[in-house]
Amino acid sequence: MARDTPQTLTPPMGWNSWDCYGTTVTEDEVLDNATFMATHLLPHGWDTIVVDIQWYEPGARAGGYNDNAQVVFDEFGRQLPVPARFPSAVEPGGNNTGFTALAARVHELGLKFGIHLMRGIPRRAVEANTTVFGTDYRARDIADTSSVCPWNSDNYGLNHEHPGAQAYYDSQIALFAQWGIDFIKIDDMLFPFHEQAIEGYARAIERSGRNITLSLSPGTNVSLNRRDFLAEHATMWRISDDLWDRWEDVRDQFDRLVQWAPHQREGAWADADMLPLGKIGLRAERGEPRETRLTLTEQRTLMSLWTLAKSPLMMGGDLPSSEPETIELLTNPRLLTMYRNAAPARQIHGEPDIRVWHAPPLTTGQTHYVAAFNLSDTERNWTIDLADLAPELGPATHATNVWTGQTSRIVGNEHHPYPHLNITIPAHGVVHLELEPQETDTP
């Protein structure tokens, strides 16, 4: 199915409520983060606010899911926000108008608004046997009660051989489009790989008439062989399980991204998952309230890898209560210039502990970027031969460290016309350099 969604220069950049609020985020917390983003991050390209899972569940709690949970839905089995957490959803007369008012307030800030969705139809709607909007079909006609998510019991999958299945997708997405939704993250889609469901949601988005970003999750063992299908039907798709603030989680993404990064293109992005930075765990699935357990060195490694590989950037921490150092990470001008203007990077050297990535410019003769990562637990010295990168970088190159701002001019000699970079990389760290060719007689 061809998609006519306008192509974007960079992957989506935004905030998602999961890492800090789990299933329990409230309207006020969403607006606090949206207001902070509009003031501090929007000028740097961050523009999307996403309410994650179970905004429709009255009994949602931190630290897990309720079995056979109650769900708020309309007479057609389509989820509605819980009024106690999202009071603007209910009009004075008592009618639940969904996220219409909240989306409008987010839009007024110059931002996009998104929601999370589980694959399929609520089990409670199947129990009530609700009507499928615009048809004579019922929820029990279209549900596949053998198709269940192993970690969340909110929904059943759909029987895609029944015409009412697509009618349900169409009516559900049409309702969300009517609310003003710009981004939909759909879960339980990729493991196992639910091809018909992906096609059904993509078709419903196309029919809705609204430009909606489709994000698929989680990415357990998703195969690179699925890449063309995913690129045709979705804007972004996860390539791992949930990533938390643990060094081993960050380290494990290197092997995944080295496969996916060369295939990134505008409008179709492999997603290395959210950024567990800043203040997280406030009421989340895992852990107590905390500043991220990743060290500053590890946070820089994460941000360098994600941006070099052109992963979408979805901040998971509570923005208003995060430390200024976190916001500096998210707004680093050299890093974001690379993110916008460089081609997707490739790993040009890989051994168990040292990984070197190179991002060439989109236009010949412009800035190159190279990053050397040290995955080991001890400091390492390393040498990069600029001849490995590009001819235009020799024999004189101006190098600026993306994270520290330190600059140097590197000049070759008669024995080595191309300069060599001798660097020291901290444990779990990165030396990330912006490289600009210069004339040899530049003072």
UniProtKB/TrEMBL annotation:
Lineage of origin: Bacteria, Bacillati, Actinomycetota, Actinomycetes, Micrococcales
Annotated Alpha galactosidase C-terminal domain residues: 353-435
Keywords: Disulfide bond, Glycosidase, Hydrolase, Signal
Disulfide bond in keyword set: yes
InterPro entries according to UniProt: Aldolase_TIM, GH, Glyco_hydro_27, Glyco_hydro_b, Melibiase_C
Protein name per the record: Alpha-galactosidase
Source organism of this protein record: Populibacterium corticicola
Family: Belongs to the glycosyl hydrolase 27 family.
EC number: 3.2.1.22
A Pfam match: Melibiase_2
MF (Gene Ontology): hydrolase activity, acting on glycosyl bonds
Catalytic activity: Hydrolysis of terminal, non-reducing alpha-D-galactose residues in alpha-D-galactosides, including galactose oligosaccharides, galactomannans and galactolipids
Top EC class for this record: hydrolase
